[in-house]
Amino acid sequence: MSNLLRQLRQPLFPCKPIRPIIDRSLLHPRFYSTDIESLKKQSDSTETDNSVNATGVIDKNRNEVLLYYSFSSSRNIVKQYLMRLFSAFPFSQKYNEDNLKDKVIKISSPLPSDSKITELVPLLRDSGAFVKFQFPPDETARSFITEVRSNVNKNDAKRLDNFVLKTLNYVWNRSPKVYSVKGIPWIEDLRRFPSAKIGIKYEGNPLTEEELYVLFRRYGLIDDIKIEPTESYVLFHDIRSAICAKHCITGMVLNDGETTIHIKYVPIKKNNYIIDFISNHTKIAIPIILALLATFAVLIFDPIREFFIQYKITHSANSLEHYKQNKWFRLIYIPYKNLVSAISNSYDYIDTQIHEVAGLKSDEDESCNTEAQSIHDLKVENNMFWKERYEKSKQLKLWILENLNSYIIVKGPQGSGKEEFVLDHSLLNDERLSRKILVLECDELSKARSENSLISSTASQLGYFPVFTWTNSISQFVDLGVQGLTGQKSGLSESKETQLKNMFSLATQAIRHICEEDYTKYVRSTEKRNKKLSDEEKIEILRQEDFLSQHPESKPIIVVSKYSRRADIQSNDFIYPLIADWTSGLIQNNIAHVIILTADVGSIQHLNDALPNQVFKYISLSDASMTSSKQYVCDVLKVKDTTTLDTCLEPLGGRMLDLQAFIRRIKSGESPEQAITEMINQAAELITTFFLNNNTSKIENGDNNWNPAQVWLIMKILSNSDEINYAELTKSPLFKSSKETMNTLTTLEKYDLITLKRDKGVLNKISTGRPLFQAAFENIISDLRIWKLYETNYLTELITLEVQKIQKFENELTSIYKIGSKIDGRIDYLTKKIEGSNNKIVSYEKEIVDIASYKAQQKPHSFLGIKF
Questions:
Q1: Which residue from 58, 503, 552, 712 has the highest number of Cβ atoms inside 10 Å of its Cβ?
Q2: For residue 89, is pLDDT > 60?
Q3: What is the pLDDT of residue 824?
Q4: Is the distance from CB of 725 to CB of 765 less than 8 angstroms?
Q5: pLDDT per residue as tens digits for the range 211-233
């Protein structure tokens, strides 16, 4: 012992001498008793369980030594949490103690014959264990520890007698190490996880920097030592070194009992330069971060979205049939289908047996079979109904296959079956044209009430996935916060118009890649064939533009349905010009065919603006002829006698939707007369509620620019005439302004009340928009009570117009008299105009007074030369 003290007294550096450090584990404990030992002895006197699990302190007798085994580095904080959780299980302690005991014996062998392990305390969190040995009486503690440490090093050297293992061990640092425990270890399970930095508190005199280095250097490399008045800090290069030092030295008594040290882990506070840069340079950092995030999102999500758009176009029609050709799919699908069929057949058999035993017939099965047969008949007869449009269908296919300016516009009134004509009877019937179709329903986009619903609807129609609508709300708050911090907007919050443009732009890329895939297949096939041919026989490979011109089936077909001039929601009006620009880009790049389905003739102006030099191809669909309508209804209802149906079908004309509604009513049990009467009454109620009522004719986008009096005049004329001459209509005071008149008539055409007919692009005739509405007009006007109400309103509106004219003329006369001018001609002109308007007002007021006494046969039939 004197030699150890003499060595420790030798100065390591040319400074003040180091005070002696005494290894308390080699001396009798009664001479250097610490507070923790005294406290434990006092608490042990009345307790039965004084184990390390209960107290956190390991007792040690005179012929025992306490060693700390460190098996590997403990750097992973996740591992530390998991070990803490794992130690809570009841079986974990026994399992770890048994395994660790065998491991300690294995790496420490050969041990002296009289030595044994008397206690083992595993520390799963720190990847180590305290091991208490009883050494032989004829050996000293120092020699026993030296022998154990030498055995551990020799066994580890044998284990690492391989270059690969040695390299891995250098990286992972998994060589076991053994240290003598010099203090009184405190085995705690607090939420304090290892750190490379340890804090040292003293009871008594503190240690100098040199003394701390001598004390802690044996456990590993030290990066820094800091001395403070109340506490010192030692920063190790490795966490494992800090763990070993903490377990071996804490509670150690030094300087003849004058100093006791206590060690704890100190979290290392590292400077995050990135966070410091962001917080100190927000105007620069935040835009950079947002740009990086946007770039990352584009790189990750855009290829995924493009794939789903391509899938939507190429497999939307027959996605399951596409995969049924795959052998692996068939391997799974066929047994599944057979199993489902077997189960289904067994249930049918059991159900049949029950009905046979009961002597009953299943009415439900019979009704289901009848309904299925009716659906089948409807499909068959539906094909018969479209026979008269067969030539137009052939023309549509021919235009696509010609592949020259394939921008096709299909016009027709609402309910004329434009979508069925294009999809079911033209494209899907052709195997070449049905492979790549994308359908856009514009009405679903225009009716979206919020930005998120608009984006979701557009994404659903394009196949744009994934889409994160919730980011719109978050980006607005982020944009507001960034503007408050930096004084400028981040640009993260985009308008819905910009977002839709980005979605359609990505759809353009997907369509271009679809064309490129077919061209790539063509190039590979041609090159493969050319390898087998001589140089003279080789086939020339076409350019992509030439290939697409010769193979129109390689280009997707974009069908834009329900295209209109204005949206139902005014804030969504930008959708139609946006779609026009998008489709025009597809045509100009020669990567798609475009078919526009519209019932609004005014919407073509958007297309003209997008493609001013393009000559569009038109297909006009009108209502079916009465012969086809009667044949269709008779075939579906399986009726041969058409006498009853002739008068009932006449108000319906050839409008497909009305014919189907008529058929459903008859199948529900109504007679033909009841069915047509109810349909006319419903149409009349729709007209009066939507067009003639000032309070309920408000459209959400403000597109309610008609006057009920204008609608009433048009209804009166069309109730007795098939068409109205536009020149005659403008004679009415209600339709004097040509611009306002055109806007009103276009809006009424949009809502299917009327149809505008043009001659060489100039409006010529006005007819009923829906054949059923003409019968509804007659129904409304024939009701004397309704006629009196709206006729009075109509005349009142005319009186209001004349009063406004008189006020205008009077104001001009007043101005003339004020300036004292003598313009006798102008004064006479204004006087006559005032007199004429006054006479009209008198006439209108007389008619209003007489309306109350009018009878049905006394209704006038002409006004201002317009017969009705």
A1: 712
A2: no
A3: 77
A4: yes
A5: 999 999 999 999 999 998 889 99
Q: Which residue has the tokens 């003394």?
A: 211
Q: Is 764 exposed, middle or buried (0-12, 13-18, 19+ CB in 10 A)?
A: middle
Q: Which two tokens stand for residue 336?
A: 């599944």
Q: Quick one: tokens of 497?
A: 């118009």
Angle at 57 between CA 55 and CA 60, to 5 degrees: 130
Residues sharing a CB contact under 8 Å with residue 579, sequence separation 6 or more, in sequence order: 440, 442, 504, 560, 563
Q: CA 386 to CA 424: how far, in whole Å?
A: 10
Q: Which of 268-277, 486-495, 751-760, 790-799 has the lowest mean pLDDT?
A: 486-495
DSSP secondary-structure letter at 754? E
**More reliable by pLDDT, 729 or 43:** 729
Phi, psi of 21, deg, nearest 5:
-110, 120
More confident of the two residues 722 and 329: 722
pLDDT score of 383 more than 60: no
8 Å CB contact between 266 and 233: yes
Mean pLDDT in residue range 684-697: 80
At 188, list the tokens: 């705690």
How much is the CA Rg of the chain, to the nearest whole Å?
A: 47
Give the residue, 665 or 19, on which the prediction is more confident. 665
Give the residue among 496, 492, 487 at the shortest CA–CA distance from 475. 492
Q: What is the rounded CA–CA span in Å between residue 517 and residue 529? A: 18
Q: Is the pLDDT score of 14 beyond 50?
A: no
* Cα gap 395→401, rounded to integer Å: 10
Q: How far apart are CA 659 and CA 637, in angstroms?
A: 12
Q: Which of 592, 648, 596, 656 is nearest to 389 (CA)?
A: 656
Average pLDDT estimate for 787-816: 93
CATH number of 2-265: 3.30.70.330
212 contacts 200 by C-beta, under 8 angstroms: yes
According to DSSP, residue 420 is labeled I
Ordered by start, the domain boundaries in the chain are: 2-265, 387-467+481-487+494-620, 696-867
Residue with tokens 């609508």: 469
Confidence band (pLDDT; 50, 70, 90) for 189?
A: confident
- Are the C-beta atoms of 22 and 253 separated by less than 8 Å? yes
One fold for both 2-265 and 387-467+481-487+494-620?
A: no
- What crossing angle do the helices spanning 672-690 and 656-667 adopt, rounded to 10°? 130
Quote the mean pLDDT of the chain. Answer: 80
Structural domain 387-467+481-487+494-620, CATH architecture: 3-Layer(aba) Sandwich (3.40)
pLDDT in tens, 348-357: 433 333 333 3
CA dist., res. 5 & res. 27, Å (int)? 13
| Residues whose CB falls within 8 Å of the CB of residue 868, separated by 6 or more in sequence, listed in order | 716, 717, 718, 719, 720, 721, 861, 862
Note whether 861 and 868 are within 8 A (CB).
Answer: yes
Strand pairing report for 593-598 and 557-563? parallel
The tokens describing 218, both together, are: 């044996």
